[in-house]
Amino acid sequence: MSSQSNTAPAPVILTGDRPTGPLHLGHFVGSLRNRVVYQDSYRQFVMLADAQALTDNMEDIGKVHRNVVEVALDYLAVGIDPARTTILIQSQIPELAELTFYYLNLVTVARLERNPTVKEEIRHRGFERDIPAGFLTYPASQAADITAFKATLVPVGEDQIPMIEQTNEIVRRFNRVAQRDILVEAKALVPEVGRLPGIDGKAKMSKSLGNTINLGASAAEISAAVKQVYTDPLHLRVSDPGHLEGNVAFLYLDAFDPDKEGLQALKDHYVRGGLGDSVVKKRLEGILQDLLGPIRARREEFAKDKGQVMQILKEGTAKAREVAAQTTDEVRKALGLSYF
Amino acid sequence: MSSQSNTAPAPVILTGDRPTGPLHLGHFVGSLRNRVVYQDSYRQFVMLADAQALTDNMEDIGKVHRNVVEVALDYLAVGIDPARTTILIQSQIPELAELTFYYLNLVTVARLERNPTVKEEIRHRGFERDIPAGFLTYPASQAADITAFKATLVPVGEDQIPMIEQTNEIVRRFNRVAQRDILVEAKALVPEVGRLPGIDGKAKMSKSLGNTINLGASAAEISAAVKQVYTDPLHLRVSDPGHLEGNVAFLYLDAFDPDKEGLQALKDHYVRGGLGDSVVKKRLEGILQDLLGPIRARREEFAKDKGQVMQILKEGTAKAREVAAQTTDEVRKALGLSYF
């Protein structure tokens, strides 16, 4: 990153979530806990991508609306601080749609179809050719979100890197058309810890697979989930040697156990044989209860006054909109779409 | 039209032009003179589609900006009256981009690719697969323009009827999602007089073909253009029988000559033989000078105070924006995108 140099703009992060359900441990590991760190060093915008979420939720529009406040509660509960992070609701900043509209002229259909992330998502959702147009064009929308805030860093998984490249292509094409550098290129910020598997051992933790532990889970729900955690199917008796590969209990301990030495000793014992799953799970449960207990408590506290949460979103959105409106104004002027 | 019934909404017309060059006789016959009539009976919105025009003018953005005022001058010159017609600039109503964004979720890529108008335009422009995404998705943008003003009538040529059908599909899908009739279906209003050929006899009168007579043409330019008008290549001597088919001089007379009887006599004489092209062209020139003289004079008058023209556009746009904002608000609420 050249962000430390004198000439580079101050680093700005854009990140966010599609509010389609409660956030879970996977979000915590993959993004939320990083945001809590980032807000100390960077200007950070966290976007509730409700308009984007509609792309494949047109048949259940209430779901997106309901989850905006739920996801905001998750944000506040994990320690995203509205004083240091600007939390915004995408749909309430129409400039993002306006920029999308312009950027659609800067990318070809063929290029969108080649986008590996779009390809994979189309496959994953089983859309084939009957994809909503908004789905094919969502890289332009994402480019609008990133560039509106002149974000220089976008935290994404490895699989999302092509989306950032796509954004930067649009940035370069726009700046060429504008004949000056109005938009800013962004860099992917890929977190060190990758994706957390579901409690069933499936690669992706996902609400639709029912293999999540939500951030707002009760103590009893955490307890029940840990009991279901996939371990080693060959580890039938306590005396059997256990395997660590694909063992979700240990993968979760890797992600959350602060006592790395103690964890290593536990692993050695497990592999040697003579250590029951119940001991491992007990340790995991303790750690998860310790992690999620305070989060749940803060979440419940914030949830008592949803009016206050909406006020936080309103203020964050207004602040973010000022930035987006400024960028959009520059874009409009550069395109000659300014008259009065 | 059921617009006369008690329950149907009052008829609203949306029409407009892409401001990429001065308007010409083809526009006059195909649309402008109808608008002057429509404004007596309908609520009429005339849109300068500058944002839409960018789709294939990203490499020459100044052109669109420059032509907004030129086309507005053409409107005022032909008698479109800002007191009875709301003239608006598309890009200054960001709600149109916002609606486009939502509508992209209501139409599939496959459906857009099947749109005959889009197909034909893609072929015409030689885009192939390298079309800008904004070009493929422009039916969603057009649906936004039409529905934002709850237009019930859209004057279009035969070839544009599929675009109206596409809009109505989006309207029906949206209303189903919203579970109430928020958007209004539109009807194509196909004018009786079809397309005027170019002076060279080519089917389309078009700036890029250089076969137009502009509305602001000087007397000398009109005279020179009429001299070039394509007639009957077999009509070599005055005494030869002449042909009317494809004879642009007569096609123009059909469109503009108010003396239908005199015109019929002229045609008979021409077909019989013994009537020179020069006589026909003299008649045509007289009629065009009579038609365009006052238009040119009004155009020059308005052009003296472009500030006033911009004021007209500003007021029309503000008025139109109120309507579009109202519709967009209803759309946003129906999609659950309303929070504060």
UniProtKB/TrEMBL annotation, chains A, B:
The keyword Ligase applies. Its EC number is 6.1.1.2. Keywords: Aminoacyl-tRNA synthetase, ATP-binding, Ligase, Nucleotide-binding, Protein biosynthesis. InterPro entries: aa-tRNA-synth_I_CS, aa-tRNA-synth_Ic, Rossmann-like_a/b/a_fold, Trp-tRNA-ligase, Trp-tRNA_synthetase. One of its GO terms (molecular function) is tryptophan-tRNA ligase activity. It is an enzyme of class 6 (ligase). The keyword Aminoacyl-tRNA synthetase applies. Belongs to the class-I aminoacyl-tRNA synthetase family. This is Tryptophan--tRNA ligase. It comes from Massilia agilis. The gene is trpS.
